[in-house]
Amino acid sequence: MKSLHMVAFILLIVGGLNWGLSAAFGWNVVDMLLGAGSAVSRVVYILVGLSAVYELVSHKGMCKACKA
Q1: pLDDT tens digits for 6-63?
Q2: Using CA atoms, how far apart are residues 19 and 31, in angstroms rounded to an integer?
Q3: What distance in Å separates the CA atoms of residue 27 and residue 43, rounded to the nearest whole number?
Q4: Which one of 10, 17, 42, 67 has the fewest beta carbons within 10 angstroms of its own beta carbon?
């Protein structure tokens, strides 16, 4: 489960940075790298969304700060 947590965390970082760059500068890095509206970019967005749901559901049980 630790590796799944790390993958989800990394995808959330990618998604968060992409949102930040999109809001600040109008750069959508995922679309720039993978092509706007391409199947691969859609998969990335789906994985980022699923990672957010996974972290939302499982975070409290895994977070050392939340257990304290």
Answers
A1: 888 899 999 999 999 999 999 999 999 999 999 999 999 999 999 999 988 887 777 7
A2: 12
A3: 19
A4: 67
Question: How many angstroms separate the CA atoms of 60 and 20, rounded?
Answer: 25
pTM of the model: 0.79
Report yes or no: 51 and 12 within 8 Å, Cβ to Cβ: yes
Chain length of the chain: 68
Give the position of tokens 């679309």. 31
**Residues 53, 11 contacting (CB under 8 angstroms):** no
Cβ atoms of 55 and 9 closer than 8 Å: yes
For residue 62, which amino acid is it?
Answer: M
